[in-house]
């Protein structure tokens, strides 16, 4: 991976990862020109009213723009009546609704899929913003329709002062060292913790390609879920060897050490830890966006062979794998999945974002069964020939 990338303004992925990723911002003019006309403000308004969408409508009072209100989805037409001058509409996971937008993740091949969160779109009227703030989050902000002025400031952390009494986590001030107007197709990478403030210059759509990291508390939670269902571990432990009497109310340090050792011994089990972590990482943040599949059988699939269909990952699903030597293990949407050894290398390609042509190479019964199961669970989807041209 040493060629320069247009999305990074002509630097290599390695240079970006060493110099910028999680460290400092990067502005790239005309990095993603294909995003310009992908959605219009009217499309975003329509999406906001979809009952499954995850959206927030943020308003600032006309008389006091420092007074904010947030209405979360479901949003109704009535929520858009009597609008103040300054407002922003945020819609999460638009990549689950637009294949063209989901395809743009491929412009960021230097960050693995498990780190991806979703693509949020924000639509704001002239002057609209979500305030001065910071996120614990890597984000590529890409300008779609219209223009937005971005100001960047100081690095913040959990101790940074937050404005009291507002429904958003806002910073009282930012110390501006960057001030630029982004036009359609321009990109700004903002590392976690960096204060930022984006104000719409006109009717404006901004896409946030966001990247998530799990926290230790949620990892612990999944690990404990996995151990909690292990029947063997439900057996009471045998008691510590007792030779002399101890105080009745006390648990001695020796007893506590014995219990802790039993616990820590189990925690050394790498298979359970990996299963817990992979399950967590493959969880969808918006499982309600995973569409109900049209039930299909192996016979239907056999008939579809050589008709020009391709298999691809369903954009709202998450499919991840580990590879140890030649052994591939898969997790999708929060659970481990079993598939035949023959299909594993192809499923790996699908998880890497490639399309697989549905042809005779897949004609073996166990492969067809794997594909049918994955299609019926909406982990994979079929793309008609016309869409791949
Ligand atoms: C926005 O596009 O208005 C908000 C994006 C962000 O600040 O992270
Ligand atoms: Co932000």
From TrEMBL:
Give the domain of life: Bacteria
Membrane-spanning ranges:
none
Organism for this UniProt entry: Acinetobacter albensis
Spell out the PANTHER family in the cross-references: MINA53 MYC INDUCED NUCLEAR ANTIGEN, RIBOSOMAL OXYGENASE 1
Q: Does the keyword Transport apply?
A: no
Q: Which SUPFAM superfamilies match?
A: Clavaminate synthase-like (SSF51197)
Alphabetically sorted, this entry's keywords are:
Dioxygenase, Iron, Metal-binding, Oxidoreductase
What is the recorded name of this protein? Answer: JmjC domain-containing protein
Q: Where does the JmjC domain start and stop, copy by copy?
A: 100-228
The prosthetic group or cofactor this protein requires is: Fe(2+)
């Amino acid at each position: 991976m040493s060629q320069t990338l247009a999305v990074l303004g002509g630097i290599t992925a390695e240079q970006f990862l060493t110099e910028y990723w999680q460290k400092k911002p990067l502005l790239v003019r005309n990095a993603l020109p294909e995003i310009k006309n992908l959605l219009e403000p009217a499309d975003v308004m329509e999406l906001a009213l979809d009952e499954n969408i995850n959206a927030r409508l943020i308003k600032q009072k006309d008389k006091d723009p420092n007074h904010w209100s947030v209405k979360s989805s479901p949003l109704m037409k009535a929520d858009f009546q009597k609008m103040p001058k300054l407002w922003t509409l945020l819609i999460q996971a638009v990549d689950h609704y637009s294949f063209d937008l989901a395809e743009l993740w491929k412009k960021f091949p230097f960050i693995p899929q498990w780190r991806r969160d979703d693509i949020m779109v924000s639509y704001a009227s002239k002057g609209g913003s979500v305030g001065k703030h910071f996120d614990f989050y890597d984000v590529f902000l890409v300008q779609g329709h219209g223009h937005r002025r971005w100001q960047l400031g100081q690095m913040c952390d959990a101790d940074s002062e937050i404005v009291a009494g507002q429904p958003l986590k806002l910073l009282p001030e930012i110390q501006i060292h960057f001030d630029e107007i982004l036009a359609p197709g321009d990109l700004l990478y903002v590392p976690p913790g960096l204060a930022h403030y984006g104000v719409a210059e006109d009717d404006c759509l901004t896409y946030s390609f966001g990247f998530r990291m799990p926290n230790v508390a949620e990892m612990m939670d999944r690990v404990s879920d996995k151990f909690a269902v292990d029947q063997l571990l439900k057996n009471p432990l045998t008691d510590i060897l007792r030779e002399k009497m101890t105080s009745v109310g006390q648990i001695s340090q020796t007893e506590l050490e014995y219990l802790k050792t039993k616990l820590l011994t189990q925690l050394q089990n790498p298979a359970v830890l990996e299963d817990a972590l992979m399950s967590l990482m493959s969880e969808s943040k918006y499982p309600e966006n995973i569409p109900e599949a049209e039930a299909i059988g192996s016979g239907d699939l056999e008939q579809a062979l050589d008709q020009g269909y391709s298999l691809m990952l369903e954009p709202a699903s998450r499919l991840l794998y580990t590879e140890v030597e030649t052994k591939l293990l898969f997790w999708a949407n929060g659970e481990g999945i079993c598939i035949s050894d023959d299909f594993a290398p192809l499923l790996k390609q699908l998880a890497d974002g490639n399309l697989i042509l549905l042809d005779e190479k897949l004609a073996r019964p166990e492969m067809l069964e794997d594909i049918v199961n994955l299609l019926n669970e909406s982990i994979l989807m079929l793309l008609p020939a016309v869409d791949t041209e």
